[in-house]
Every structure is written in structure tokens, then in C-alpha cells.
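Anyone have C-alpha cells for Late embryogenesis abundant protein LEA-2 subgroup domain-containing protein? Sequence:
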Amino acid sequence: MREEISSSSRILQMEMESTPESRYSVADCKYARKHKKRRKICMLVLCVHIILVITITILNFTVFRPKRPVITLESLTLKDLAVSVDAAKFKVFLNITMSGDLSIYNPNRVSVQYEDINPYIEYRGEEFGDVHVPAGKIGSRTTTNMNFVLIIMADRLSSDPNLYSDVVEKGMLPLTIYVNLKGKVKLNVLFKVKVKVSTKCDLSLDIRTASLASQSCQSKTKL
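Reply: yep, here.
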């Protein structure tokens, strides 16, 4: 009798182990293990991505920290100066030809792309001549040299009352040349920094000797 009861218990236990609920529990365990493995992989990828972003950010503000390009007006030469005076009307007519050599130094570890450069000249705050320098690219830690020619026919200044005094009485013509550079420093695929450099040069033309009497320049930079 006991053997029959024991045998029946074993049969019942075997039937319980082979029920669908038991099979589903095994499948659930396998799915849970796979899901846990995938989650670990996702967390690992996310951690690597975060580390890369932090590393790139640190490099951008240390090794690849953007520095201002340096614009230098290396030379400015007065090629031609023609002056005519209408003493009766106290008017002066000028034709001026000037040539200049401009250098731009890029101290960054990456290249700088700049837009068109348009140097222009002013007399007592009034613009009366400019020149066009096409856009380009400056390599890392290199210097780009440019030259330009300014041909100025200052008819619009003939009505300025200061012009007659500067040219005829003082013999000195004060001028100001502006050179503005706008560009971008591409640190990497994600980061680009805009840069703007402005150079201002104050000049004095000696009318009697047709030469440059003085020249002083200063620069400003915005990043």
C-alpha cells in the first residue's frame, strides 16, 4: 500500500514538473537573462559615449582651445599722389594709389576659414575707398600673406572744409585704414567657434614729399 502511494506521488510530481506553467517559467528566465545582458551592453555603450564626449570637451577647452588670429599690416606704400587745388573755391581734389602687404597668422592647432575681407579707408570718419580680398583658409599654425591695392579718387571729399586746411595749410592728410576678418575655427565635427578680428591703422600722408609720415595700428578680437 505504501509503495502504491509513493509511486502515485512520484507520478503526480512528474506531471507537475511537465506542466505548461513550468515550461513558461524556464522561458521567462532565459528572456530575463538575455534582457539583462542587453541592458549591460547598452549601459557600457552609454558610458563609453559619455567618456568620449567629456574627453572631447576637455580637449576643446585645453589643447584645442581657440586662439585669436593675428592680422598685421606689414607694409603700406604710397604709389601715387595727385593733388589739385581750387584756391578760389577752397577745394582740393585728390587721387591716391596705395599698396599694402597684409599677413594673417593662425596660432590654432586647426585651420581657420575666413570670409571675404574688405579693407577700407576713411578720412575723418567718412569712408571713401575700399578693396576686395576673397575668402580663403589658413592652415594650422601658419601665416598667410596677402597684398592689395587701394585706388582712391576722393571727389566726394572735395566739399569737406577740413580737407583744404589739412592739405594746403598743414601739408598732412590724416587717414584711417580698417581691416576686418570674420571666420570660423572648426575644432571638430561638433564644435565650431566664430572669430572676428579688427585692425585699425592711423596714417598721415605728407603731401609735400608724397610719402607716409607716420603709421600706428591696433587690433581687437572677439571669440
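Residues 18-24 have pLDDT under 50 and may be disordered.
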